[in-house]
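Supplementary Note 3. Input sequence used for the single-chain structure prediction.
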Amino acid sequence: MGNFEFQNPWLLLLLLLIPLLIFLRIKRKKPDDALIISSLKPFENSESLLAKFKPLLFVFRLIAIALMIIALARPQIVEMTSTVKSDKGIDILMVVDTSLSMLARDLKPDRLEALKEVAENFAIDRPTDRIGLVAYSGEAIAKVPLTTDHKVLIEEIRKLKTGELEDGTAIGVGLATAINHLTDSKAASKIIILITDGVESIDYRNDLLYISPQDATQIAVNKDIKVYTIGVGTNGRAPFPTGRDLFDDELIFTMQPVDIDEPLLKYIAGQTGGQYFRATDNESLQEIYSQIDQMEKTEINEIKYYNYTELFMKFLTWALVFLAAEFILRKTLFKELT
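The predicted structure, written as discrete structure tokens, is reproduced below.
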């Protein structure tokens, strides 16, 4: 629904004529001289019921004048629509570690929930970019392919949880899965944001389904894909989930050392032209995403369209209705009273 406004709002000042006309009428009706008579009895019942309604003619005229003034002010409803055109598209894949350690509570309420909130805001702030989502732990899965339908993306970000995939931390597999989805991208810039809170724990040498982080990095370099890496976790020790309570099935947390393979994450970022960040709390995680957002800006042209619906004819029509009603009543019902 559009906004209601006036094209010439200053003309509404003419509405001040209404109280002035009322004042002049009252003053004109006021008798200057009093007629002194011995009795009012001869004038009893001399005023008919119809005469009591005669002031309505003046009311009709005032309403008509007010409506004409409003019509002169050009009332209208303005509806604005906009289209956003991107001259430099960016394809982004967020690769999120969903291993059990992401439930550690050094970020509030835990690492995964803190990340989901920041990732959701990041997607909202980039309406013209195609963004996808990959979740990984001991294996990887593409949750959302590259898309501009950010409602779907945000829904899947909110649904991220631990325990859905095989346990472990397969950084190379997560990275390779994202690269695979960017292979056919025609975007001017292809970006991966890789998040983890641990160390590569998969022995890729004994399983052909796995790929090392180093090999995945070289594929990214060959395909001109830039990777930003984020290590999530405080410095020192943090409360990690280590089991469940037998009675209420709640997670049990114990303090353990935080171990993040920062040399590997720096290597991946450095080789691909990206940058490594360390998020030790909620504020630093938010700041990291803000920095990436600033470094990978999309050039946007926003075109706005304004649709004006003129309403002055409606007000003018009703003004004419009241004027006509006054004229007809004055020439018919109230004719003998004039």
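The CA atoms of residues 192 and 227 lie 5 Å apart. The longest helix spans residues 312-331.
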